[in-house]
């Protein structure tokens, strides 16, 4: 049984799973920081309401303003 754990750690599968796990954690943190940035920028600095952030018309307005 102990040899099975050593074989799993030495195989190519374990480093690949470890890399995928790190990538998923990174993407989760990026999404979390993006959502926090939206809240800080739009609600606290911009004075908008919390539900306007998720409104589709708000995002169309922002993208049209950037163009």
TrEMBL record:
Keywords (A to Z) from UniProt: Membrane, Transmembrane, Transmembrane helix
One of the Pfam families matching this protein, by short name: EpuA
Entry's transmembrane regions: 20-45
Protein name: DNA-directed RNA polymerase subunit beta
């Amino acid at each position: 049984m102990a040899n099975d754990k050593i074989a799993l750690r030495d195989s190519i599968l374990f480093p690949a799973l470890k890399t995928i796990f790190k990538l998923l954690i990174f993407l989760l943190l990026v999404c979390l920081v993006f959502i926090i940035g939206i809240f800080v920028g739009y609600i606290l600095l911009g004075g908008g309401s919390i539900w306007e952030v998720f409104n589709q018309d708000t995002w169309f307005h922002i993208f049209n303003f950037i163009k």
